[in-house]
Amino acid sequence: MTTLQITSPSVQTSPAAGRADLRPQNIRDAVIRLAGDSQDGIQSIGGFLARLAGRSAQDVMTYMTIPATISGGASIFQVRIGSGEVLSAGDEADFLVAFYQHSYDNHIGSLKEGGVLLYDSDHVQPDMDDKRFVYVGIAITSLTIEALGGTAKTKGKNIFVLGLLAAIFDFDVEKLKTLIRERFGKKNAALADTALIAFQSGYAYPVENVLANRYHFEPTTDQNKLAQITMDGNQALAFGLIAAGVRYGAAYPITPWTSVMETLRAELPKYGGIFVQTEDELAAVSMAIGFSYSGNLAVTGSSGPGISLKTEAIGWASMAEIPLIIVNVQRGGPSTGLPTNVEQSDLCQAIFGGHGDSPRVVLAASTVEDCFYVALEAARIARKYSTPVFILSDSSLSTRIEAFDEPDLKGLIQDPKPDLSPRPAGFKPYPLDKITQHAPPGSPMIDGKYPVLTGLEHDETGHPTGSATLHANMTVKRRKKLQQLAAELPLPEVYGDAEGDTLLVGWGSTYGPIREAVNRVRQEGKKLSAIHLRNLHPLPNGLDTIFARFRRIIVAELNDQGLYGFGQLATILRARYCEPKIQSLTKTNGLSFLVKEIIEGISK
Amino acid sequence: MSTTITLASEPVKLTRNALTAERPTWCPGCGDYSVLASFYKVLEKRQLPHENIVTLAGIGCSSRFPYFVNTHGAHFIHGRSVPLATGVSLARPDLHVFVFGGDGDGFSIGGNHLEHGARKNINLTYVIMDNSVYGMTKKQTSPTSPIGFKTKTDPTGAMDRPVNPIKKLISAGATFIARTHASQVAHMTQMIERAMDHEGFSVLHVLSDCTEFFPEAFDSANPRKGGEFKTIEEKKWDETPEDALRHDITDEVAAYKLADRPFPGLFGVYFQVNRSTKNDLEDMWIDSVRGKMADHSDLEILQQTFHRMK
Prior knowledge:
The complex is a heterodimer of chains A (604) and B (310). Chain A is α/β, with parallel strands linked by helices and 604 residues long. In chain A, strand 10 (248-251), helix 8 and strand 11 form a beta-alpha-beta unit. Helices cover 34% and strands 15% of the residues of chain B. Chain B has helices spanning 16-19, 32-46, 65-68, 81-91, 103-109, 111-120, 165-172, 185-197, 252-258, 278-292, 298-308, and strands at residues 53-57, 72-75, 96-102, 124-130, 133-134, 140-141, 176-181, 201-207, 268-272. The N and C termini of chain B lie far apart (59 Å).
């Protein structure tokens, strides 16, 4: 049971047909859940709403589940639009749009008391005796067919619903029509016309006959806010890599990673680059290493099972000290696991996966916006420290659409050209006292001695060696550069109270719900704080100075508590700081944390 | 116009001496020594810019090759030299990419990559030194070990049908396929040169015997050991009656039939065709896409994309 309610439209709790007072009610925040089948195009309604919010400088966050089946199956799209900061997709919905009986049956439980059920009366028979909700039945299917004519069948009912929502929420109709024309008109002008007819008939529906209130979003507090960029996490990652000067990559398709490679395959040629779809994961990582070896920092990526296949070659990159970016868009595991659900259970694999001591860097993106920036940071580290760098994302970030401020592309964009300048006499690929910076092929070697990069233990020139001393020294060299990196990393900011009883520690996509939990608890007058770790390996130095200010540290993460009662990050933090006050809050049902679950978790 | 300034980086003649790196770690008498000698010969003859030669390999005795050639190079993991080389080849058209490896690396653990490198017609030259035995791990069965060959993993004799490398390469779509024998240095040198000159995925299959664990493997094709080294007679297109009997290297079916001859079979070029390389096809795509970009900088292109996402 939550102790606080998020801001929501206040709605009548009884059906209100025939009411005449249609004064708009000003709202700051609404959670709309659309439930249907995956082929109904409910994702595109969500996409339109998200983009509209972005263009209206409103904050938006979406949440989507799609079935693992190829076509068909139940699917939901939840969009939360707010005039202030939107941190999570919302625990409960203010509005539920149910296309089918099963959509109603499965999702009525997620509708807030007093919420509005908008249902297709051609398919859904709700339990009207349940007086907790407002029931708005509209014959969506037959009205769409009527509007579009016989051949359209039921296609277009998503756009009809968009029109309905535009009327109910007083959305900017001209902006929505522009978005529809942009989306459909590119390929087929007739299709755009059809979509606009569906939209118009939804918008013109006399919704006042079945719903007493209409709603209006309060203008955003910051009137000077520019139009925002609207994209999902996988797109943000792909464009972050492009901004970082990554021009080459290779991968094999796997959910939920695939759309990153699709974007890069289509976009990189514009920048003179190439992304290759390989025969398997082994070839993908090897080819990316080949690109990197050629002097062009490259990317490979996958999700859990594919990352497992890449681990041998990542070990080579660690040993040969090759810069490389490896993206893991995590899903539920182990094995094929839960391909379309969220989990943060690949952290230890990212840090330790592989044989031997093979240091690498691990970063995690916290929001869709951060997916863009984390890619830039990964590329910076990979180049400076000549090392493989993991970027951890997850299935919730991959498809989630958010609106964020346009990045300063001019200030951020990197120039990707390989350094083929002649290398002076005595050049060493593996100097013991310096960070490796390779001479890519094509670089003339002034003393005529050319380097061979190797996975065998080697001396400073790259010659294989069986020397025990050299192996020990080289192991230190490879480790030390990451310790050097740790020293330059900033400490995470403490959100909430600077000191107190409880500090929440999170990483990755749980950023939003953790922050919202802090906000709610503090609104109640209690103390709560949180830090969010982006650098997971190496950790920034000095976390202990933050930990010292709190009575207990609770690490919230989406993985199992393990044999000894601690999740993966909690285990690492306990090993690092020998700090018994570090506790664990874990969850493995394939869904992200609800805000109330975090609040309940720390109340125990 | 004359000048008194001499360039410090004036091209130095690429000699065998300049190309020699570490002393090979191969056993005395190993066939791979002559492959190395042939490779030096070709590089000396062709005088490629030293810094633009890349030597790559996976794991195995023959895959130690990069350490013995003084060029840019990498000694990668077992079986994955072809995808590694693909990355180098696609990103850097200025480089001459050579891959060296053995039968285990190429036909067993890396078999799938061989297929796909060939199918994609990546511009590189791959020399596979086949000794029909796993030598580095001391005599286990290889994918080309003949049936009945006794090894530590097949103590009663190999029972699995061996791979026919030439047939595998033809069906995979390699655009240059030749075969030679480590004892025939002149022939081998000629084959390496032809492979190098081929635009596309060129593979040279070299029978290179392991003196330690399978020394007699290829005697039947070695005249010094009482065998016969029979070469393929390629069509000269001279309209003579004897030319009708010669091999048309562009004929895939004829090449396949030729590869079916009983061991030790024939040596020379089995197959060579011109087909667009992936290198060219990707470049064509880039050119057509960039043509539409009207010389916009990377920054401008990215800004336009972001503008569309508002």
